[in-house]
């Protein structure tokens, strides 16, 4: 899968990497780049806000250390490093220099990505971790959707024609998490844009996963993909009558999805989690599952009914989502990963001015991936409210949303954080 003409040294043993003290192993690095690499090497990156809990921290950081010897992956890690060390002495380095280094290494990694091909399961894991690093960078700067599509486009053929081994056996915990991160990021974005994600995980493949980003909720990604497919049909015209009602074939599909989501429960039991994770982490996992399940049902509801109609049911689901998010923050002092999309569409349903002000004032407690991302989410919410309150918003359907968002860029789905390190 390596770029043509690029010589890749074999990855040294983990202990050998851990004991590196000089720059001689990576002679192409500048002093600043090597400093950033050392912070990654010694696990001095702040990754907790991207994870369901600190129990995943060491394994997550070690996954990046284990890939440092691959040049194009190393480029992507260095590009992301300034985003992950804000509380680790980053102020001592010149901001302009860090920006230049980050942009240069990101450009090099993307150039390598254009040449990559995936031939086996080992390649899958490598391109997935490269993808997560690049999407993390892109999410802070814009443009993550096209990256997700390209990376998952490389993965899809091997997944679709894969062996009978389970996905967990083929990719391991790290590979599964990086796949989920990219799938979630693209899928939630596609929901707003009424587009179909690049690939769909087969039912059952993620039922037993306990993921560092999306906890026990990974199976719900299959239902979100199905919602995207229905939204795409409606958006392409001919599937909604002039009175706004969806045609019978779409209604049947929505009913089937709704029944499946309503009946869905995590296959992983609480009793099997309490021995492996902290009580806070278990609370976060089940709260996340509740929020994402309600989010799927809220999207389904709005695919059926225009905004301004059947508002009581929609508002009840939105309030349930927002209440759950606030309860978790109050109870644990932490927010739930991968809930930015849930927060966004729940806020769409709020109508009273004082309630709107309240949810925006609390946005920093829910959306903490980055300041830029939080401000973008708030901009989308306020823009949507303005349209919803106008004459144009009185007959607005789900497939109309993306046309009213600034720059026509839809929100990224966060497992978000999930596009993250």
Protein architecture, described:
The chain has 421 residues and is mostly helical. It has a domain at 275-404. The protein is 60% helix and 0% strand. It contains 18 helices and no strands. The protein has helices spanning 14-18, 31-41, 57-65, 71-84, 95-113, 121-141, 144-160, 167-193, 220-235, 248-263, 270-273, 279-304, 311-332, 340-348, 353-361, 363-366, 371-388, 401-404. Helix 9 (220-235) packs antiparallel against helix 10. The longest helix has 27 residues, at 167-193.
Short précis:
This is Zn(II)2Cys6 transcription factor. The chain has 421 residues and is mostly helical.
Low-confidence runs of at least 5 consecutive residues: 4-23, 408-421
By helix and strand content, what is the structural category?
mainly alpha
Tally the beta strands: 0
Order of helices and strands: HHHHHHHHHHHHHHHHHH
- Quote the distance from N terminus to C terminus: 22 Å
Write the layout of secondary structure elements.
Blueprint: H1 14-18, H2 31-41, H3 57-65, H4 71-84, H5 95-113, H6 121-141, H7 144-160, H8 167-193, H9 220-235, H10 248-263, H11 270-273, H12 279-304, H13 311-332, H14 340-348, H15 353-361, H16 363-366, H17 371-388, H18 401-404
Helix pairs in contact: 2-4, 4-5, 4-6, 5-6, 6-7, 6-8, 7-8, 8-9, 9-10, 9-12, 10-12, 12-13, 12-14, 13-14, 14-17
Throw out a few tags for this protein:
single chain, Zn(II)2Cys6 transcription factor, mainly alpha, Fun_TF, disordered C terminus
């Amino acid at each position: 899968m390596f770029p043509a003409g690029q010589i890749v040294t074999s990855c040294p043993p983990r202990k050998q990497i851990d004991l590196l003290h000089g720059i001689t192993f990576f002679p192409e690095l500048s002093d600043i780049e090597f400093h950033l690499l050392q912070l990654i090497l010694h696990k001095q990156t702040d990754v907790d806000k991207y994870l369901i809990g600190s129990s995943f921290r060491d394994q997550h950081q070690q996954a990046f250390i284990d890939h440092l010897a691959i040049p194009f992956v190393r480029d992507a890690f260095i590009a992301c490093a300034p985003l992950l060390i804000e509380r680790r002495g980053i102020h001592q380095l010149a901001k302009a220099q860090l920006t230049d280094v980050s942009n240069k290494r990101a450009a090099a990694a993307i150039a390598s990505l254009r040449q990559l091909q995936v031939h086996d399961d080992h390649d899958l894991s490598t391109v997935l971790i490269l993808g997560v690093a690049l999407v993390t960078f892109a999410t802070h700067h814009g443009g993550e959707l096209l990256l997700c599509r390209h990376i998952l486009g490389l993965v899809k053929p091997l997944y679709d024609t894969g062996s009978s081994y389970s996905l967990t056996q083929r990719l391991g915990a790290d590979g599964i998490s990086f796949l989920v991160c990219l799938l979630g990021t693209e899928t939630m974005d596609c929901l707003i844009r009424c587009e179909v994600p690049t690939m769909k995980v087969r039912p059952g493949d993620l039922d037993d996963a306990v993921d560092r980003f999306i906890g026990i909720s990974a199976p719900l990604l299959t239902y979100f993909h199905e919602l995207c497919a229905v939204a795409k049909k409606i958006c392409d015209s001919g599937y909604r009558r002039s009175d706004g009602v969806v045609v019978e074939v779409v209604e049947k599909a929505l009913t089937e999805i709704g029944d499946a989501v309503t009946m869905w429960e995590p296959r992983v039991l609480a009793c099997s989690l309490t021995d492996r994770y902290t009580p806070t982490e278990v609370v976060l996992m089940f709260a996340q599952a509740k929020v994402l399940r309600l989010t799927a049902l809220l999207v389904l509801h709005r695919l059926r009914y225009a905004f301004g109609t059947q508002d009581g049911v929609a508002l009840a689901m939105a309030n349930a989502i927002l209440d759950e998010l606030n309860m978790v923050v109050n109870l644990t002092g932490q927010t739930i990963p991968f809930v930015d999309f849930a927060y966004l569409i729940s806020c769409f349903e709020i109508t009273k001015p004082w309630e709107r002000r309240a949810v925006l004032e609390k946005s920093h407690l829910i959306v903490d991936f980055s300041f830029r991302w939080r401000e973008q989410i708030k901009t989308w919410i306020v823009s949507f409210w303005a349209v919803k309150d106008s004459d144009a918003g009185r007959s607005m359907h789900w497939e109309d949303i993306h046309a009213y968002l600034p720059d026509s860029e839809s929100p990224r789905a966060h497992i978000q954080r999930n596009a993250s390190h």
